[in-house]
Amino acid sequence: MAKREADRKGEEKDDTRVLFDMLPSEATKVEEEYDWDEIRPLPLDGQGKVVCVTDDKGSSERQHPRRRGKGRARRLRKAREEKRKGGELRMSTSRGIATEETRKEAGGAPYQDAELLLARNVLSDPGISKGAKGYPVMAARQGISTLAEGETPKVGDMARNQEQGALPARCDLFDPKEDPGSKGDPPLAARQGSGTNNVLGDSEGPGMAPRQVNEFVLPNTKAAWKNLKDTVLREDDQATAATEPMSDDEFDDEEEENWAWMQRICTGLDPPSLWSGERINGANKRQHRRENKATRIERQEAQPSSSYWASHKGEFTIPPPAGKNLDSWKGDMCPQNLALHHPAAAKLLEYATGGCPCNTGKPWSKDQIWAAVERGPHVSALEEDAIAQLEGEIAEKVKARQCRVVLWDDIKDNPPEQLKISPLAMIPHKSRKYRAILDLSFRIRLKNGHEVPSVNEGTTLEAPAGAIDQLGHSLQRIIHAFAEVDDDAKIFMAKFDIKDGFWRLQCAEGEEWNFAYVLPQKKGEPVRLVVPWSLQMGWVESPPYFCAASETGRDVAAQYAETPVGNLQDHKFVHYAMGNEDVTALPEKATGDVLKYFLDVYVDDYLAMAVATSQEQLRHVANAVMKGVHDVFPPDEDDSNDPLSLKKLEKKEGEWALLKDMLGFDFNGDLKTMQLEEKKRTFLLGVLQKWLRTEKSKTAGIELSEFESVIAKIRHGFMCIPAGRGLLSPCNKILAKRPPRVYLHRNKRLSTALRDIRTILREATKRPTKCKELVMGPPDCVGTKDASIHGVGGCIVGEGKASVPTVFRHEWPDWVKKEVRRTNQNQKGTLTNSDLEMAGLLMLWLVMEEVCNLGSGSHVALFSDNSPTVSWVNRLASRNSQVADQLIRALALRLKVRQVSPLCTLHIAGEKNEMTDMPSRSFGSEPKWHCKTDDEFLAMYNSLFPLPNPQDSWTVFQLSPKIISMIYSALRTGVLGMEEWRRLPKPGRLIGGVTFEEKCNAALSFAAAIRVGRYGGGRQVRAGTVSAALAAVNTTIALAIDQQPLKVQGSKDFIPVIAQTLAGWRKEDPPVQKKMPVEADVPEYLAEAGRLPEANELGRAVGDLSMMAFYFLLRVGEYTVKGTRDEAKQTVQFRIKDVTFFKKNDKGVLRQLPRDSEEEVLLTADAVTLKLENQKNGWKGVCVSHHSNGQEFHDPVKAVARRYCHIRRHTKVDTTFLSAYFEEGERFDVRDSDIRAGLKVAALALDYEGTRGIPVDKVDTHSLRIGGANALSLNGYSKEQIQKMGTLETTAL
């Protein structure tokens, strides 16, 4: 699609894609003007190249597509400039100096700016990410040692120290056959299943299937560096001019200059550092967080869009061992088997043999240590039941050699050099009464008033920098994966927990003393210290050390999953995953459907999801996950001590199921919904109820710590209710002020917000949220608006769905104009221009509700030229404006009512927003646009911004006075009730378009065309058909604009002129000729005819299908096809996959037969079930069953079996219709005309007119359905029973 060249000439000027061109003839060509499928817009020149600006120093810098805020942008530019001065980021080319920005990939769809899609493993530098390959987790950062000239190491070679001359382990960067950019960003794609390659193999598709490992070698060092640089430069060449590969001499000249840049790239397994190279400790951790956030946002914006699911190909072959497994190691973590091929293997082996480095700062003095011992444990650990539980846990850990206990008196006079004492706390836990947490952030206060820095404050970070890049994104990835799956697919979920977590990794020798704590015990007993050899929960370095191992286990599991299904040996715990009834209902083996799976890990929780069609597929994924875990955390002979928590497996957490609690939310894999787990929801509702009881009390306040904790839990719970965030602004303001206690009687807005939150949480219990409502996507409709001191205006067009092109405007009253603060004017005013812009955006949304067809999961894009408004809506919160708080609250409540996906709100430059400038200034402030009436305004708007089709016209929407009054109340910071915003009066009405006379003439012309058959088969139709067509047109219009133009207001009747016309046509129509039922002898006759030796396959198919239709009460469209398929029809024909056979066992109980059973077995089945995917009446997924009647041939079960076996002999496609038959290898389908002809032949042969008085012309396909119902009725079945058997909404049959 066409892109337009941006006109930004300086870094401070906003660079935003144009929504509408200023040329009137192209006013609404949104698809040409805003490409929603592109990754991220960049200015282009006439040849489609990215425009770069060159500064005075010769730096070529790609323009940034969106301003994120002047302050932050300024800080980033300053930091980068400082690094450039040191030569760290400069890389010479034949074109000049390519800066860091020129290596960025232009990625991320425009709507992703508002919500970054969180992909797995965004670890690599954006400059080398596109087209690079590597092992999923840390290959982008891991180093492989420098090689001698001509040396060619194999894949299994371990990574060595990068300081010796490391190369990136994303080995395929050096493959000369590789086409950069052809396979996407490996860190993203590896976890999204999008055709990524890894160290072990090469594949075009997802799942990282291999090429021959013995063919995969690394070239020599010099060629590798040269190829890497060429790969990076090729990305720049796509944006500017083509660059020839560098010669060896050019490369040698620049190798030293590039070394700093390469070291910056290869940092995934290195300790983290600031951009300046400074190591991270307690003093600079805030700066580190800011830099991490900026880097993460840039990488997420640059990543391409891809699937979160891996499609199983089964092409991976487990390579030969990379080395011998260790016989002994420290702790309970040591990579083995396939994990030894992982780029992180060398680092993990280092931890397994020497322990994890624990650099916690300078040693404590004796006085400091004594003070910490006297301080003792936290008060929560001194409860009797806490002491008893802790003693048992310590005894187990001593036995497992995870810690030891020493007497304080034995070491107090000569304490170990690294000894540091921190207080232990016992906090409530969901699976047991307490969980022990070592407070390593606690500062010890000395008697002189000085404080001892905590262990965490003194820690210099040594753990791999890339180990926890995935932490915190798992839940978002699961939500996106759920939203991506088809509605009819089922997602099975399983969760595997690592027992003892951090305790499985041990500290380096002598450094375990850093985590000592006083053992809580009764008074009078000697002081004992617990010295854990393992990493401790609460230490800042424990998560990255542990995640380096757990993430590696996840990657290994993904490799195992790509082996052929059935190739993995059953794991000793696999039976725990296969017991759910939804799993056992699946066939043992797949019928051809591709397995899709999703693997993730959150610290110690391995999360697996699969869209599977057989038990074998689910068993394969479970085996892969558990083998991947055991390749990093070796198994134990004692199952109770195994890394895979046997206790959790016995609680069925590892069992495949359609309902599963993952990361605190209940997911439904059938309905694709999620909600906060019931226990947490009940807790929050109880706390809110307790708080609101103190609303009128002047003495009962809420402790700030309690308030802060509960609001954090609510904020987390609102991840499944995104509109709920818009209710939290009053809470945010309290947290910003941090009063010691929170009193509700002083803050009406806060109490109202808490009441609203309680209501939202209660409603979430009744309706779990569909995951599709939580994910942004290409917009169905687009709106933009502008507000000034004079008025507000906006326009709306359809994008993904059709919508009436609409424009609205509203003039502010005098009191609003007087309250607006201006520069050096009216500084006491209560309103700002941003408040008016926010009010305008709320008006825009209310208009869109009326004119756009918005439903569950609809995607909407909004544009505003006011940056605060864009920020407020994206965050659904404001920091300082109380007016904005109320408007955001109103918007959030409306979003919850409509159940749309999160809004995508983007900034548009003011000079590009003329289409909304005009309506907002059409009240006299701009004389050229002044319009006194809406009709005058509409005429001018159509002339200035005509639609592409000259016959189309814009429509003006006029907001109702009641809606305007509610918005005025918000501008006065009034707090309206929740129900007032959720149950709005009619927002307004559309003005413009056609007159009533024109509407009547158009409707009658259309009705006449339907009547004479112009839109049908060319023959006249009945009045009822015309009425149905007009009703459909009326409904379509009503869905778009909430008006029924063809019906009387408030009635179901057509307007008089249409009603009179239809009444006249009904009088002209001939009487309806109803069809008559047939008896069982008709389908039996057709079945016998198909049995004759001279019968063909069509005859046999007609006989069997007629038998089925009679006994199952089928509609003709459910078992035949028509010559021309009407896609508007809802009925879905029966397919092979919809048929299930049953046979009685020795006890007379029906048991399902496998789909691949022998024909002899199927032809003796005792019952059969047909699943109706969709029906004429809209029912979906209904099953119709029938038992065998015992006859040898005239049996509906055997008739279905004959059709099933015939089709299965010729095709394995399980979506083949039951109406199919094959002759000489060619497929045909039975049509309704074939059934109709057969019935008439049978009726003639059986002399229905002479013996039963039924003319042959009254026998048709419907005769089978009503004949079966008639037979049931004559045999004593009730109307309700027949209704159920025939899947009818009424008893009319």
Structure notes:
By secondary structure, the chain is an alpha+beta fold. The chain has 40 helices and 36 strands. The strands form eleven sheets. It has a seven-stranded mixed sheet with strand order 28-27-24-25-26-29-30, sandwiched between helices. A four-stranded mixed sheet has the order 1-2-4-3. Helix 14 (542-561) packs across helix 16 (615-630) and helix 23 packs across helix 24. The chain starts with 29 loop residues before the first helix and ends in an 8-residue tail after the last helix. The model is unreliable at 1-73, 83-246 and 250-266 (pLDDT under 50).
- Please give the alpha-carbon distance between the first and last residues: 54 Å
SS summary, helix count: 40
Give the biggest sheet: 7 strands, mixed
Within the largest sheet, what's the order of strands?
Answer: 28-27-24-25-26-29-30
Oligomer: single chain
Helix content: 25-40%
* Rg computed from alpha carbons, rounded to a whole number of angstroms: 36 Å
- Please report the total strand number as a whole number: 36
User: What is the general shape?
Assistant: flat
Structural category is: alpha+beta
User: Which residues form runs of ≥5 with pLDDT under 50?
Assistant: 1-73, 83-246, 250-266
Mean pLDDT: 77
